[in-house]
């Protein structure tokens, strides 16, 4: 039985400050570092030994992986970083306080932007300094690949090539693979593996710092899934 470990990064500084984060490269809070450490210990104590790691281009996920891998004494395990695993891009909302945004636009509108499947927040202007195009790590991407806003639906579509071309071949090669990413990119993987509908994936809540184990059969269907 193959095992896929999904881990949402620990609390970030902007999670703590109640701000929209998206592709903004915010680091972990102290509580987030403790969550990452605790996740590593839980995986180690469960006797799981990941043989390949995947993570995003964002430091809150990268640092969660580094801390957890150290706790597992698996620092030497290969890591593949893929921008396709980045968090959903929240467009012009990125950096804004969620409570202030709700007061400005109304709770209902903010709820639609955050929780609907196919509605995108207002896009960034391409010249906005918050655009990923201004960052060196995305220099190799085409203009069409760099989002200025995303819905959950388009985020999941972005994650799919990483699953099909990178993660799935690794699972076929190794017994245990671990992905450390973000709430919405992990929702995408869960939608594919658990065959969730749009309504079901919208309701799926993935806690920070909690290792989620999916046991996969030969057809890569999740026969069991549980949190440590």
Description:
The protein is an alpha/beta fold. Helices cover 40% and strands 14% of the residues. The chain is built from eight helices and six strands; from the N terminus they run βααβαβαααβααββ. The chain has a six-stranded mixed beta sheet. α2 (30-45) crosses α3 (59-72). The relative contact order is 0.22.
Our estimate of the beta-strand percent is: 5-15%
Assembly annotation: single chain
What structural category arises from helix and sheet content? Answer: alpha/beta
The portion of residues assigned to helices is 25-40%
What kind of sheet is the major sheet? 6 strands, mixed
Shape: globular
Number of strands: 6
Order of helices and strands: EHHEHEHHHEHHEE
Mean pLDDT: 95
User: Number of helical segments?
Assistant: 8
How far apart lie the N and C ends?
Answer: 17 Å
Taking all Cα atoms into account, the compactness measure Rg is 17 Å
Spatial arrangement of strands, main beta sheet: 3-2-4-1-5-6
Features:
228 residues, alpha/beta, 6-stranded mixed sheet, 8 helices, 40% helix, globular
Topology:
Blueprint: E1 2-8, H1 13-16, H2 30-45, E2 52-55, H3 59-72, E3 79-81, H4 98-105, H5 107-115, H6 152-173, E4 176-181, H7 183-194, H8 198-203, E5 212-216, E6 222-227
Can you summarize this structure?
The protein is 40% helix and 14% strand. With 228 residues, it is an alpha/beta fold.
């Amino acid at each position: 039985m193959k095992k896929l470990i999904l881990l949402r990064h620990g609390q970030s500084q902007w999670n703590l400050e109640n701000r929209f984060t998206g592709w903004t490269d915010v680091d972990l809070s102290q509580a987030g570092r403790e969550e990452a450490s605790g996740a590593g210990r839980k995986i180690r104590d469960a006797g799981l030994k990941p043989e390949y790691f995947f993570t995003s281009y964002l430091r809150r996920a990268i640092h969660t992986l580094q801390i957890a891998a150290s706790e597992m004494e698996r620092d030497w395990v290969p890591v593949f970083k893929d921008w396709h695993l980045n968090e959903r891009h929240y467009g012009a909302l990125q950096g804004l306080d969620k409570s202030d945004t709700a007061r400005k636009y109304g709770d209902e509108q903010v709820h639609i932007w955050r929780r609907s499947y196919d509605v995108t927040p207002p896009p960034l202007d391409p010249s906005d300094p918050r655009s990923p195009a201004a960052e060196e790590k995305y220099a190799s991407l085409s203009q069409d690949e760099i989002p200025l806003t995303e819905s959950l639906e388009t985020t999941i579509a972005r994650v799919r090539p990483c699953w099909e071309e990178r993660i799935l071949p690794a699972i076929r090669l190794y017994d245990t693979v671990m992905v450390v990413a973000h709430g919405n990119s992990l929702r995408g993987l869960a939608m594919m593996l658990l065959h969730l509908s749009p309504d079901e994936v919208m309701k799926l809540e993935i806690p920070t710092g909690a290792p989620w184990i999916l046991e996969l059969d030969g057809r890569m269907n999740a026969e069991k899934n549980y949190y440590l």
